[in-house]
């Protein structure tokens, strides 16, 4: 689950996607306002999500994915902005008849930014880095099916799995290929991408320069600078004053009218995969009782919360599955807002007079706002909520790592992350043996059709069990100056490819 501000933890996938061959193709975006684009332009990008460090296996957070994924680091495969998987550093691959062995042939002539040639040993090192005991990679548990990594020659990697994994290639798109000799990766880099790291000034900006030795198509601009802001107001002011050219993810819907009414800007409403969850600890009383979880879900007016935070943007969502996932089904009616139903369920569970619990709440928007709303909603059915505001680092240790909580708020950014409900050891502790079995069967499925049908069952069962309360699906709003084009619209899984951005004079 990748979280929306500073934390990037587990959201794994369960998908086999269409594969197409590419070197480093283009993303969607608005049309530039005419004129010849400047190949030596500096593109200024505004964001609220600064990296915690530059290593995506060491808790670098959403910010490191946004700035470095695809721009500085590349994988054997790339997950495009519209959710397809494309070959990248893998020129080609073969799968054995039993589905357990994958043999990859690497692109020829690829060099790291340090000048070292890419070899199969670097791929092995990068996978082992993800699987290491101290790794905080979002893909770690999904890649634990890797049994053996062989490197018969410089351009060949042979990976043997312990069991079939229909999502294996998809999951590899999240693994950055890193120079096996690189050091100090929390503050420096050595990737193969179209940009090199020029400078990172903590609390301010991170700049990337076009890499002259890039193996694929050169970046469409000379330099990209990610500017970091503490709040949405400062971010919007920077766009209005031309200090930046584009906002990666607009977090202030009230500010959008000033851009909509100004012909110099374009407001893009893309497809989001970010879910805001009220996550119960399903192993802690009273949330061990499914009727209590159902009651709390029914007592909260998700539609009203969404409107209060996002106005006319975003969507209600009745499960962990957004409409862009293949196994999506509209389940918003399963635990729909119904105060009388909530009161009835509480009485049946033995809590007719209500109960109290502590809600651990990350300290950045919209969590405090959502927590206050939830507190007022649950008070109407006799439930008392104590809000405990914590930092992202505290959340990681207390909630995600130690499971020391009763309920929490958190955003899960990634697509295809329903499968975490099949893991009883995940931080929310949901444990339904049938769901676990369906998830395992889906991962070992022989076809995407079989996989989809199984995960639809998981989707419905987790909704009926109120495994969590999925409050709403975020909008993905990218606001940009009309002088630029080629920017990603969806920012899928927090990535923001900058190499196709063109800027006119």
Question: Which labels suit this protein?
Answer:
alpha+beta; five-stranded mixed beta sheet; 21 strands; seven-stranded mixed beta sheet; disordered N terminus; 505 residues
Task: Provide a quick synopsis of the model.
With 505 residues, the protein is of the alpha+beta class. The protein contains 12 helices and 21 strands.
Walk me through what this model shows.
This protein is α+β, with helices and mostly antiparallel strands and 505 residues long. 23% of the residues lie in helices and 22% in strands. It has 12 helices and 21 strands. The strands form 5 sheets. A 7-stranded mixed sheet has the order 9-10-11-2-12-19-13, with helices on one face. A 5-stranded mixed sheet has the order 16-15-17-14-18. The protein has a 4-stranded antiparallel sheet with strand order 5-6-8-7, covered by helices on one side. Helix 6 runs antiparallel to helix 8 and helix 11 packs antiparallel against helix 12. The longest helix is centred in the last third of the chain and has 17 residues, at 448-464. It is globular, with a radius of gyration of 23 Å. The model is unreliable at 1-33 (pLDDT under 50).
């Amino acid at each position: 689950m990748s979280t929306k501000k500073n934390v990037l933890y587990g959201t794994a996938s369960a998908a086999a996607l269409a594969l197409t061959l590419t070197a480093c193709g283009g993303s969607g975006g608005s049309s530039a306002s005419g004129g010849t684009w400047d190949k030596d332009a500096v593109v200024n990008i505004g964001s609220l999500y600064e990296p915690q460090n530059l290593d995506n296996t060491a808790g670098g957070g959403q910010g490191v994915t946004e700035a470095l994924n695809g721009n500085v680091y590349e994988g054997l495969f790339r997950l495009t902005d519209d959710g397809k998987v494309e070959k990248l550093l893998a020129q080609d691959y073969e799968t054995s008849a039993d589905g357990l062995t994958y043999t990859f042939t690497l692109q020829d002539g690829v060099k790291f930014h340090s000048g070292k040639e890419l070899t199969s040993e670097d791929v092995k090192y990068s996978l082992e880095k993800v699987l290491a005991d101290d790794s905080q990679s979002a893909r770690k548990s999904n890649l634990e099916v890797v049994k053996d990594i062989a490197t018969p020659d410089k351009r060949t990697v042979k990976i043997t799995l312990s069991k079939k994994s229909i999502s294996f290639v998809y999951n590899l798109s999240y693994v950055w290929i890193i120079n096996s000799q690189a050091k100090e990766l929390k503050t420096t880099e050595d990737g193969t991408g179209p940009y090199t790291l020029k400078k990172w000034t903590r609390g301010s900006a991170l700049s990337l320069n076009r890499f002259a030795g890039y193996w694929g198509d050169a970046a469409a601009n000379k330099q990209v600078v990610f500017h970091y802001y503490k709040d949405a107001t400062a971010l919007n002011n920077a766009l209005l004053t031309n200090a930046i050219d584009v906002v990666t993810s607009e977090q202030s819907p009230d500010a959008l009218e000033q851009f909509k009414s100004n012909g110099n800007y374009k407001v893009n409403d893309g497809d989001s995969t970010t879910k805001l969850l009220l996550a119960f600890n399903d192993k802690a009383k009273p949330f061990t009782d499914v009727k209590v979880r159902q009651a709390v879900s029914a007592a909260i007016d998700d539609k009203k919360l969404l409107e209060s935070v996002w106005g006319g943007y975003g969507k209600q969502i009745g499960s962990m599955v957004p409409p862009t996932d293949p196994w999506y089904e509209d389940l918003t009616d399963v635990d729909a807002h119904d105060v009388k139903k909530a009161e009835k369920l509480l009485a049946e569970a033995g809590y007719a007079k209500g109960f109290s619990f502590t809600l651990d709440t990350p300290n950045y928007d919209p969590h405090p706002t959502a927590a206050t709303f939830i507190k007022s909603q649950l008070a109407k059915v006799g439930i008392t909520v104590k809000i405990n505001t914590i930092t992202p680092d505290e959340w990681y240790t207390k909630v995600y790592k130690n499971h020391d909580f009763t309920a929490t708020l958190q955003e899960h950014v990634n697509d295809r992350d329903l499968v975490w409900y099949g893991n009883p050891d995940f931080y929310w502790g949901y444990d339904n043996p049938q769901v676990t079995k369906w998830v395992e069967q889906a991962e070992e499925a022989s076809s995407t059709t079989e996989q989809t049908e199984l995960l639809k069952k998981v989707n419905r069962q987790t909704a009926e069990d109120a495994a969590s309360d999925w409050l709403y699906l975020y909008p993905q709003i990218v606001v940009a100056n009309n002088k630029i084009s080629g920017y990603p619209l969806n920012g899928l899984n927090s990535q923001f490819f900058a190499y196709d951005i063109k800027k006119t004079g």
